[in-house]
Amino acid sequence: MEYLDFEMPIKELEDQLAKCFDIGKESDVDVTETCKKIEKKLEKAKKDIYKNLTPWQRVQLSRHPNRPYTLDYINAICGNTFMELHGDRSVKDDKAMIGGLGKIGDQSFMFIGQQKGYNTKTRQYRNFGMANPEGYRKALRLMRMAEKFGIPVVTLVDTPGAYPGLEAEERGQGEAIARNILEMTRLKTPVITIIIGEGASGGAVGIGVGDRVYMMENTWYTVISPESCSSILWRSWEFKEQAAEALKLTSDDLKKLKLIDGIIEEPVGGAHSDRNGAYEAVKNQILTAFEELKVLDKVELVGQRMEKYANMGVYKE
Predict the structure, then answer these.
(1) Which superfamily, per CATH, for 58-310?
(2) β partners of residue 156
(3) Predicted local confidence at residue 158, as pLDDT
């Protein structure tokens, strides 16, 4: 188990609890009461820490190396019914963007999302979750396929941004993302979007235009990462915490700004501390959203989606 800086008090108490249990096993001393006291302290410490997280601490939690990724959620929710589909039918198959058909119960869904790696080798293979233009074109191809067969779309967002390389720009990175945004606004099938980790810039919005958009509790969603914002404004990454505060990137902030439709509560300690609990929460939210959307006809669905995004923001004439 890896711990972040602000989680060190929890680590100390968990170490104490483990030693207490060991002493009880290795000797005749009754340590039951002592262990119970430590457990109470541990429970209180977790509640105090995770209920008062700063925006930067939530950014750290969203990047926790043990946090579940897109394929983890899909495989847990769909089991062996998930069938991955590959390629944009133009350039190649982008490994940072995955998609395919899967079932929750008897209902089929088209799942699409960015996939990160678990170690150095798989992170390079997945390009650190940063998709190229062919990734966004693959996502659009799958969305159109879902629309053709009347299958709802679920997008799971977890990316530090679209890949900013020269080759990506040469192949039309900006156009691919813009095309996705345009086509998603008028897609004639329900679209449910969930931010499960990082939601940075156009890389996130390229698959993030949904009828219902939800954020998991310890995630972030904004135009730029705190580090990049800090480097632009202060010419240094040292002010990333101030940048995270100013960007209003947390789920609470975006809910207040009416940019998302809801927040999915995570288990105490984050999604990585209780993966099954996180999977169940996401699954339930998908099913709840689908029940709300399936009663709308295609004209109502597209009309409400366009109106939703047209009403975002504040302007003055």
Answers:
(1) 2-enoyl-CoA Hydratase; Chain A, domain 1 (3.90.226.10)
(2) 113, 194
(3) 97
